[in-house]
Amino acid sequence: MKLLPKTVTTEKLKTWPMVSKRGHIPIRTCISCGKRQSKIDLLRIVLNDKGYVVRDIDMKAEGRGAYVCTDISCLERLKIGNRLKRAFKREVFMEKEF
Ligand SMILES: [Zn+2]
Hints:
By secondary structure, the protein is α+β, with helices and mostly antiparallel strands. It has helices spanning 10-14, 17-23, 72-78, 83-88, and strands spanning 27-29, 36-38, 42-47, 52-55, 65-69, 93-94.
C-alpha cells in the first residue's frame, strides 16, 4: 500500500467531493431530546397559520420550523411538557394524529 505523497495537504483533501459534500449538510437540534443531527435525519415540523404544528414532509413549507428526530419516542415526547411552546415561542396545538 502506497502512502499519500507529502504534497497532498489537508487543504486539498477538503476539496474532495465526498468530504466537502458531507460538510455542507446542516446540523439541527431535535427540540425533543436535544440531540444534534444532520438535517436529513430529522423531521421538520412547521407552524401553520392556524397555530397547529404539522409535519413538513417536503421540507418546503413556509414559516417557522423546528426539527425533531424521526424516532417515535421523540415524537411522542413532543406532546408532553412545553417543548413545542418553547421552540415556537408561543402557544401551539397538535393534531391528535400528528
Ligand atoms: Zn430527538
